[in-house]
Each structure stands twice: as C-alpha cells, then as structure tokens.
Amino acid sequence: MLPKHAVQVIRHIWNEQGKSISMSEDARNMATVGQIIDIQWKLGMAVSSDSCRSLKYPYVTMTLKVAEPSGQIKNKSFEMTIPQFQDFFRHFKEMAAVLETV
Amino acid sequence: DRVKMAAVTEEQFAALQILLKASSKDVVRQLCQECFSSSRGSSKLIDSTCSNLSVTSEEAAQLVSSLHNLTRHIVYRGLSSAEEILSLFPENFHQSLKNLLTKIILENVSVWRSEAQSSQISLPQLVDMDWRVDIKTSSDSIGRMAVPTCLLQLKIQEDAALCGDNPVISAVTVELNKETLDTMLDGLGRIRDQLSAVANK
Q1: Is the pTM of this model over 0.90?
Q2: Are residues A20 and A60 both part of a single domain?
Q3: Residue A27 pLDDT
Q4: Which residues of B are less than 8 Å from A77 in CB distance?
Q5: The complex's ipTM?
Q6: Per the CB < 8 Å rule, is A52 touching B117?
C-alpha cells in the first residue's frame, strides 16, 4: 500500500490529467507499441503466375523485427507494390525532415 | 488452378452464343467485365444473368463460366491484338458476336491484367501508413529528457485470396529512433537505385 500523501498526489494529478490520457486512442496504442530493432528488405520480380503466364512485376518485401514491450521479439513481413514503395519512401523522408527540425 | 490456363472448349464457345439474347452491346460489355472479375461459380452473377438475358439458370451458369474462362485465358496468355483474339474462336462462331467480344476484350485487357496482378498471391500487403514525431520527455528509467521519436502505424492487409470479399486489415504500431530511421532511409534508397537499374535493363 502506498503512503497516504502519495495517494493524494496521484489522485490529484489523475483528476487533472487523467481524462486526456484515458480518452485518447493513443493511450491504448502506447501500451502496445514495439520498437523496430531491425529491417530486412528484398526487391523481387514476379515472372509468371497462375493468372498471367508472362510477367515483369517488381515488388518489395520487407520484414520488420519488432521488440514488444513484453520483451518478445516479433517479425512482421509484408509486401509493397512499387507505387506503395514510393509512397513509403516519401513518408520516411518527411519523417526524417521533421526529426531534423525538432 | 489448371482451368484458368486451359484453352476454351467447343462447348464453352457454344455457350457464349447465349449472349445473342442480350438486349444491347452494353449488356454484353457489362457481363464480360463481371465474369472476368467474379470468382468461379458466383451465384449472384448467375442469378442476375438469368434475369437479364431471360435464360435458365443452367444456361446462365454455362455462359458465366465460359465467359470467365475466355477472358481469363486471354489475360493468362497475354494476348493483346485483334488477330490473336479472333483466331481463338471456332470457324462457325457467330461473326458479329465474335467481333463484338473481341472489341470488348481488347478495351479491357490492360485493366484486367492489372487486376490479375494486384490480386495474385502475396505476403500481406501494406495498404496505408500514418506517422507522428513525438518528443519523449521522460520514461520510467529516465526522469527528464528530450528525445525525438517517431511513431509509425502500418496498416497491413492479409492475403486477399484468403479473405475473399472481407479483407482483414491489421494495424501495427511501432516506434523508431533516429538511428533506425536513418537505416530505413538507407535501405529504401538502395531499393530505389535497384529499381532504376532494373527499369533500364
């Protein structure tokens, strides 16, 4: 059990600030946010499929290694079409630009 | 799915002539598009074809299946000229219908090819992303600090082929520090360089 004055401080702060945390979606997300610890990528070219005998279809495969708050390491793999990749790249350049100014 | 690759049979060409009952060229055009995009044996499409063309549901099923096979076969082989498509039809096939179908197919073949490519099997696909830059002012281990950090949310869609009409989209939220961001940018730059190299070959 916490000492009484500590509980009073906590209660006071919670009354003032608590709403903004508990109501924001971010609070829920924060608890489940992992850290990216590694990135692997591959540029592939599909040459044939069951629906198109002859293809020249590039795509990007990426695997993010994420350290969960629990300590578990999870891999998240996904694919991007080339337009999606270009969008992805653009977002990261914007992020980097913002980080520079902060 | 070997049926997609198989040539269109005599029986299927015969079934295509049910299209002669269509009230307009637009009805034929619409049906070609719906039959290409539909999954095999779509009962909804068979029912609507039944009423649109005033045919039995058995005839409608044969027509939908034949049109699906014809359009898919043409996309599979990458046929793109009128000559190539016309030569698929048997000699005794109704001339005007053959010309109309060839015309409609030529109009749609590029779009259909793109559709086939975007729905082919793949790993889960990135469909959207959102991000935010925050300043971490404190944590359980450090009382005061000012560390800029990125919060990134990726929306990933599971394999469309497995989910049918109700794709499952999961959101992954991760944090990146500047170092990880720089590594990512470096990697993305290399992908871009490789893409240019491949495009120029």
Answers
A1: no
A2: no
A3: 41
A4: 123-124
A5: 0.76
A6: yes
